Amino acid sequence: MSRRKIDEAAHFEIITKMNQAQTSYRRSLAYHWLIRSGLALSVLTLSQCAQPTRMADPPIQCDACAEWNKPQPPFRIFGNTYYVGVEGLSAVLIDGGSELMLLDGGLSQSAPLVAKNIEALGFSLRKVRILAGSHAHHDHAGGLAALKRWSGAQAVASPRGAEALRTGNVTSDDPQAGFGPKEMAYPALSVDKTIQDGESLSVGNVSVTGHYTPGHTPGGMSWSWQSCEGSRCLHMVYADSLNPISAPGFRFTQIPERVSAFRQSIATVRSLPCDVLISAHPGMSSLFERWEASKRTGSRDSFVQKSGCSDYAADAERKLDQRLAEEAR
User: Fold this and answer.
1) pLDDT tens-place string over residues 53-70
2) How far is the C-alpha of 61 from the C-alpha of 138, rounded, in Å?
3) What confidence tens digit (pLDDT) does each residue in 79-123 have?
4) Residue 213 is assigned to a structural domain of this protein
5) Average pLDDT, the chain
6) Are 235 and 275 in contact (CB under 8 A)?
7) Which residues pair with 83 in a beta bridge?
8) Is position 195 within any domain?
9) What is the CB-side half-sphere exposure of residue 22 using CA atoms within 13 A?
10) Residue 170: is its pLDDT beyond 90?
11) Rounded to an integer, what distance in angstroms lies between the CA atom of residue 258 and that of residue 256?
């Protein structure tokens, strides 16, 4: 064999060994990558399994639902009070330190957005101990059943409110009952406690008082509490809807006691100590306009409206008088 052939054979042997070494190295890299990927996948799978399963209830269908349910970033209103609702339906979180209270849950399809907003503020949904609300219609109570399941909170309501919540529909004497049970249905909610007019609930270090405000619904409620930043404390009010809206054919004047109760509800909201008003529909108290002003000025003073509750009551009174005049004609 010539030297050239010997050199070529040696060269071939060297190249072959180099290729074998590279193949072995690649296989080794692939092996370690698979191991690491498998571990990462296992960690991811375990992490996903550790997350709570949140099954939302079927969405409620209505003409305004999509507009109402647009996502809205959460924000602090004042002190321990936060807005966690959607664009057209309020939900308010009260931080009592050791526990939380949530007022209203929007539509059934609002519940995931409300939960997300609570967690975006750094709170645990499991820390919510009390669920309550304004009134038992699908646009305010629809999300409460899911939020109760996810948080394990105790649900409270007025006796008439509880009657509607437990059936997942309006009561027969509700002004909007004429729209029909299918139109007004929402996920039923097990109510753990009914409260009396003027009764206070302890939420950690905060006392929240419920006020009966029937009219828009038979079991409507408004809520009041104090919220502090340092030494400055303000009176907060979450006001129920006070609109005399009804299904066709309903007449408030058919039952005089109903009109008297409605007027008393308006008087109740007017008389509450009220530095900051939050309404069940945020647009009814210009809440987002005040939030935008607070971002521009860097001060939450824009949320303070000393005449907020009295103006809200006066508007409700005008609407009721107008409705009664229309019925008289």
Assistant:
1) 789 899 999 999 999 999
2) 10
3) 999 999 999 999 999 999 999 999 999 999 999 999 999 999 999
4) yes
5) 89
6) yes
7) 75, 92
8) yes
9) 6
10) yes
11) 5
Domain range holding 279? 70-328
| Residue 31 domain-assigned (yes or no) | no
Cα separation, 91 vs 110, whole angstroms: 10
Bin 290: left if φ > 0, else alpha if -120 < ψ < 50, else beta: alpha
By C-alpha distance, which of 103, 101, 110, 112 is closest to 153?
Answer: 101
Task: Work out the pLDDT band at 6, boundaries 50, 70, 90.
Answer: very low
Phi and psi torsions of 95, nearest 5°:
-95, 110
- Structurally, the chain folds into a number of domains equal to 1
Cα–Cα distance, 209 to 88 (Å, whole number)? 25
Q: How many residues does the chain have?
A: 329
Is 80 exceeded by the pLDDT of residue 222? yes
- What confidence score (pLDDT) does residue 53 get? 72
CB 118 within 8 A of CB 147: no
CATH of the domain at 233: 3.60.15.10
Tokens of 256: 């005089």
CA distances in angstroms from 317 to 92, 211, 271, listed in the order given: 25, 18, 14
Question: Is 308 within a domain?
Answer: yes
Cα dihedral 318→322→324→329 (10° resolution): 160
- pTM > 0.90: yes or no: no
Selection from 265, 267, 263, 252 nearest residue 310 by Cα: 267
Confidence band of 20 (pLDDT split at 50, 70, 90): low
Q: Provide DSSP, 151-216.
A: H-PEEEE-HHHHHHHHHTS--TTSTTGGG-HHHH--------EE--TT-EEEETTEEEEEEE--SS
pLDDT in tens, 98-107: 999 999 999 9
The Cα–Cα gap between 93 and 194 comes to 20
* DSSP assigned state of 106: B
